[in-house]
Amino acid sequence: MFWAPEVLPTVIPVRPALPFSADTRVSLKLGELTAGELRQAPDGWYAVLYLRGVEHRVWLKETPVIAEAYAVELQLDRDFEFRAHAARRLWRALNDRPAGPPLHVFSAQRRRRLALALRALDARMDGGTYREIAEVLFGARQIPERAWKTHDLRNRTIRLVQTGLALMRGGYRALLRPPPRKE
């Protein structure tokens, strides 16, 4: 999947580098990419580079030139910090160094909750009742026979379906944007 830089701040805009010093240039190795890793779109070219086990995404406004050296283009906008971090990780990987940690990583609990929300949404869209969904997600033993209407797992299941619906209706885009950092 390819994302535009304005949607996913870790997509790095690049352009041909100015001819300063040829001995310090690092190539993006665009000629080694497969069709699934380099795509043309109406607004430019998108590439996914896998370097040292890390995925890096770049965007080129113009047709890529295989032997060309490229420079990162960073706008001084609200996403500058995220793009600069992504650009630094790419630079490190291109220079055979560890990329370093990503700036934005979901906790295991958040990943689990998102997965449950999508599973709950799928089941609800297939006509499952909240009780049936809860039995699959949490186990039938956890669901009481009589007190279902007031049980915590019923409310939790409803919230998971609502979260899944919100994601489906465009809320997934918020997952692409790291939360603002506190200074």
UniProtKB/TrEMBL annotation:
Superkingdom field: Bacteria
Residue ranges annotated for the T6SS Transcription factor RovC-like DNA binding domain, each copy included: 76-177
Pfam families noted in UniProt: RovC_DNA-bd
Annotated protein name in UniProt: Uncharacterized conserved protein
